[in-house]
Amino acid sequence: MNTIDSDSGQAVEPSPDNPSAVPPASPAKASALRTKLARILAASGVRTSEEDAPSHFGFGVEAIDSALRGNAKADGLPRAALHELHAESKDDRTSAAAMALLLAQRCRNLDQEARPVLWVSESGETRRQGRLYPPGLAELGIDPDSILHVDAPDSIAALRAAADGVRSPAMAAVIIELAGKKPRGLDLTATRRLSLSAQKSGVLSLMLRSNSDPDNPLPTAAFSRWLVAAAPSLALEANAPGHPAFDIKLLRHRSGLYGLSARLEWNRDDQVFREQHSEQSAPDTGAVPALAAVRTDHQGTRAA
After folding, report:
1. How far apart are CA 122 and CA 176, in angstroms?
2. Is the pLDDT of residue 244 over 70?
3. Which residue has the higher pLDDT, 112 or 17?
4. Which pLDDT score, from 0 to 100, does residue 52 have?
5. Percent of the residues in the chain that have a pLDDT greater than 90, as a whole number
6. Secondary structure (H, E, C), 53-112
7. What strand order describes the sheet that includes 261-267?
8. By the 8 A CB rule, do 163 and 150 touch?
9. What integer pLDDT is reported at residue 34 of this predicted model?
10. Looking at the predicted structure, is the pLDDT value of residue 188 above 50?
11. How much is the mean pLDDT over the chain?
12. Can you give the chain as a three-state secondary structure string?
């Protein structure tokens, strides 16, 4: 997993006329983040376009993906769009983060060549909550080296870094993590910019919200909004630990869908979700997906 520190002195200051807005990056002065990303991608040999890639992705559960068709001609959710994932409670932050990464992984698996995923978070929140943990990612079947991690100094800088990433078709997906009920800079203007950039580049954009208010969320331009919580796993044969499980609920959909909910398990070997039916009894172990956090000063972290 590669980590990039977003320089707060490079195109991260809010606009003096509208501090809550996230103005587009100046073409005359490229940010340090964009330069570093371009260098990493050039060295990796990743192609910058996937002309034949499917336009939609899904959970891999036919009943859910077909229900999400809406007005579209394909099952699932559009890749070239912005989607929101809210942690149901403070304790569900890990599960929501895992769900975002697994949806990005599902999207990556559709490409002929696997492109990296850009994860953008606020450095202060990273210090408080911890960062992505490579061994935990591997337990979910995700290659840690496929993730570029950006530590932004604040939410406005995080939105700018995410906007840079979404504009680049060299990315498979961009995940931006914002904490709190009203992150500074998060408004219709900022999310519409992300949404329009996603439509042009074809890059999946996922906004991960923790400590938010799912019952009274901020208005955004997201195509869909989901509520995610940890769920108990079902033990495998010989009482082996079961697959990571999630409770998901659709809160908003551009086509007017509402109320879709399910309990899903993630199968890392098949890279697909499967529905866990209610008649199956599972012990309430309080288990959460294997996505542990490690503090920023942990000796196992490394920077690009």
Report:
1. 9
2. yes
3. 112
4. 61
5. 54
6. CCCEECCCCHHHHHHCCCCCCCCCEECCCEEEEEECCHHHHHHHHHHHHHHHHHHHCCCC
7. 2-5, 147-152, 117-122, 173-179, 204-210, 82-87, 224-231, 245-253, 261-267, 272-275
8. no
9. 59
10. yes
11. 80
12. CEEEECCCCCCCCCCCCCCCCCCCCCCCCCCHHHHHHHHHHHHHCCCCCCCCCCCEECCCCHHHHHHCCCCCCCCCEECCCEEEEEECCHHHHHHHHHHHHHHHHHHHCCCCCCCCEEEEEEHHHHHHHCEECHHHHHHCCCCHHHEEEEEECCHHHHHHHHHHHHCCCCCCEEEEEEECCCCCCCCHHHHHHHHHHHHHHCCEEEEEEECCCCCCCCCCCCCEEEEEEEECCCCCHHHCCCCCEEEEEEEEECCCCCCCEEEEEEECCCCEEEECCCCCCCCCCCCCCCCCEECCCCCCCCCC
pTM over 0.85: no
More confident residue, 17 or 124: 124
Using the structure block, give the residue that is written with the tokens 């060549």: 113
Question: Which pairing describes strands 82-87 and 204-210: parallel, antiparallel, or unpaired?
Answer: parallel
Q: How far apart are CA 156 and CA 22, in angstroms?
A: 6
- Per-residue pLDDT at 22 exceeds 80: no
